[in-house]
Amino acid sequence: MTCDQCGLCCLHYHGTYWARTSDLLRWHDEGRKDILQYVAVSGPDGSRTTAIMLPRTELEKIEHVSAWTDPESGREILPCPFLRKVSTNRYLCSIHATKSQTCRRFVHEDWEMFIAYRERFFSP
What we know:
The chain has one domain (about 10-75, about 95-120). The protein has 6 helices and 8 strands, in the order αβααββαβββββαα. It has helices spanning about 10, 20-30, 35, 55-60, 100-105, 110-120; strands at about 20, 40, 50, 65, 70, 75, 85, 90-95.
């Protein structure tokens, strides 16, 4: 499959996990507080917080991230907060260089059907 930056995978794919432990640890090591602030977690005492507040040893205990959340309200954000619209039908990932493994490995089960859907509903 060749990505043509239509954004459909980020706009409409709501998979099970957006990020995994390895992503959280990488973002911690890279100092990516801008990403970690969108990861809601339960702190060691059971309170809700963001991953930005946890030390690496606590991030190691998180298995996956099932949703991006607004750092202010704690509500789930859809679509991904890192998706940027750059023109009418073109989108870019603002964290492409360090995006999650889930996003890196995305392959739609039926790419032909995905393309047909895009052409039917999103073509100019």
